[in-house]
Amino acid sequence: MDIRSIQGIDFTNARVCLRVDFNIERTSIGNTEEHYRVAVVKDTLEYLSQFEGVKIALLTHLGRPDGAPNTEDSTETLLATIKQTLEREIVFVPAVIGPEVVDALNALPDKTLLLLENVRFDAGEEKNDIAFAAKLTEPFTHYVNDAFSVCHRAHASTVAVTHLLPSYAGLQVLRELRELDSVRFTPDRPAVALIGGAKIETKLPLIQAFERNYDCVLVGGRIANEAIDQKIEFGPKVLLPKDFNGEERFDIGPTTIAYFGQILKMAKTIVWNGPMGKFEEKPYNIGTDVLMQAILDSNAYVVVGGGESLSVLEQANALSRVSFVSTGGGAMLSYLSGEDMPGLMALRTE
Length: 350
Ligand code: 3PG
Fold this sequence. Notes:
Elements: E1 15-19, H1 36-39, H2 42-49, E2 55-59, H3 79-86, E3 90-92, H4 99-106, E4 113-115, H5 123-126, H6 130-137, E5 142-145, E6 167-169, H7 171-185, E7 191-195, H8 200-213, E8 216-219, H9 221-229, E9 238-239, H10 254-266, E10 269-273, H11 286-297, E11 301-305, H12 307-315, E12 324-325, H13 330-336, H14 342-345
Parallel strand pairs: 1-2, 1-5, 2-4, 3-4, 5-6, 7-8, 7-10, 8-9, 10-11, 11-12
The chain binds 3-phosphoglyceric acid.
């Protein structure tokens, strides 16, 4: 898909509304480690900051506050993490729209970023409300979307705003599309998908998309149990677990681990989304950990996505050992399943 890029656009004296996705797991908030979803916008910030007189405001959602403010979901809770990760001065303004934002932007010192309040504190956001988008865009001259992971949502800050300002994709969104397109359309073979996690109804389109395009689809985690219980039928390329660890089926069993591991070893492309079991509770981490190791030891081009797979990699300090880590959970599923994503459609070249 051809979408409008920030590259080649002149942002001199621009006031940029930069949509990011700093929807960080609550347990990670305030921790001093560099957080991936924050770190990935560095390139776009660097690109925009080279222009004289540019002012940048960061706009994100956090959690699902249902259109009303609450202290827990305030983006102010992210301030320390963002400062630490981006290594920039940041001013927080406790508003998303209105004169407070305009004043804060006017007073913003050079090179300092403005962090707006949680955009989902306003009910207009999730309704993709154009009147809310008009207020949101009022202080700005340009809109940049570097939040791939929320592009599957048709919200005011991903879609309606693009009708009101010149709008472009940031460098992380472009990188996500490049990487995901390459594994989707031109994977080196054998190409293997490893899919786990919960909610078979959300993962089924992904399994089916890989069943069409890939050589093998390995399914574990709760979705495997659900598929078995619901007697969902797949073709021969989709492999369900042969055994489980315990009657409650909280993890795949040793035969499956060995079998899936062999297949992953031979792969030239691997896409991994979702854990193989209840990995946060020992010993049900074994399936996920052993297959993660098989992936890390393989010579394949590896693309990983989904919050849980990311945290498994993060815990093993192995984020940098895979070829590409997508920021998208639901968004990656949606993109690789071939669905149209509203936030991306809104940035398409005419
Ligand atoms: C995510 O974490 O996948 C994105 O931030 C989207 O969040 P949502 O599922 O609450 O819309």
